Amino acid sequence: MAVQIRGFADEGLSGLVELLNDARGGSYEFIPLDEDKLSSRIREWNLEILVAEEEGAIVGSVAYNNGHWGEEIEWLCVLDRLGLELENLLVREIEKCVKGETGFAVVDAESSKINDWVERGYKPKGGLCHMVATLDGLRPFPKVPEGVVIRSLISGEEREFVDAVDAGFGWERLKQGAIQKWKSECPPFSQEWVHIAELDDEIVSVVVSRPNVEYNESFGGNRGYLGPAATLPQYRGKNLASALTCRAMNLLFRKGMDSVALYTSEQNLPAISLLQKIDFRIGHHWKFMRKSMP
Fold it and tell me: For the segment 56-111, what is each residue's pLDDT rounded down to a tens digit?
């Protein structure tokens, strides 16, 4: 029977979970999906999904997500025996979802799959680094300008906090309610875990620390996570992000965590340099493969 491409329907959830887990098993810090996790992710990210079926079984899938980073091919998974031809077919079909000028996919920087994406018309442009560090003691803060107050967020400041993060990123990175969401997802998170630099009663820099819940549950770890982090453009280069990052690492250490991780763009060389000075290293590197669409 020939392979057929169709839109995803909920009754195929178990087959899709099995395919994704099989195809992604062994990848960097892979955390297996279950039906609840995948269903929640599909709703939260508003994913457009195509599946390839053979004799009623899902043998391939591709998903599209219009998210923070742009219009992304969220996953591309095909049984090994069906190979490149089916992958190319699925990519061509999902590209029809792209509404803007550019679509992209994320690929391991060392993967041979990069060549397959190049053949499809994609070019490497930018990427993402997973930065990790060991927590083995308290760290001193670098000096910050006179008048800057380094402290934790307090109740009633979420609007100012969200505005500072969005201004630092230059786009809407957070929405109101983010803190409550983190409290429910990452116990024992509280405002104490949000580190801010304040100058003249204005929040000018932010670093958020949280438990890395999924990693800890899946790998038996005790790791913290940092992000989002942002500094208003006019206050960069003043050690604010460094001081807040050290403060966040110290809080995680006092909470009993033995390591910390975060994500940053490979093009953000100042951030990578800053992090390496306080003992972060690149744990993993992904490339963004981008394609201009007709």
Answer: 999 999 999 998 779 999 999 999 888 899 999 999 999 999 999 999 999 999 99
Question: All domains of the chain, ordered by start, with CATH?
Answer: 4-100 (3.40.630.30), 137-257 (3.40.630.30)
What is the DSSP secondary-structure string of the chain? ---EEEE--GGGHHHHHHHHHHHHTTSTT-----HHHHHHHHHHHT-EEEEEEETTEEEEEEEEEEETTEEEEEEEEE-TTTHHHHHHHHHHHHGGG--SSEEEEEEETT-THHHHHHHTT-EEEEEEEEEEEE--S--PPPP--TT-EEEE--TT-HHHHHHHHHHHHTS----TTHHHHHHHHSTT--GGGEEEEEETTEEEEEEEEEE-HHHHHHH---EEEEEEEEE-GGGTTSSHHHHHHHHHHHHHHHTT--EEEEEEETT-HHHHHHHHHTT-EEEEEEEEEEEE--
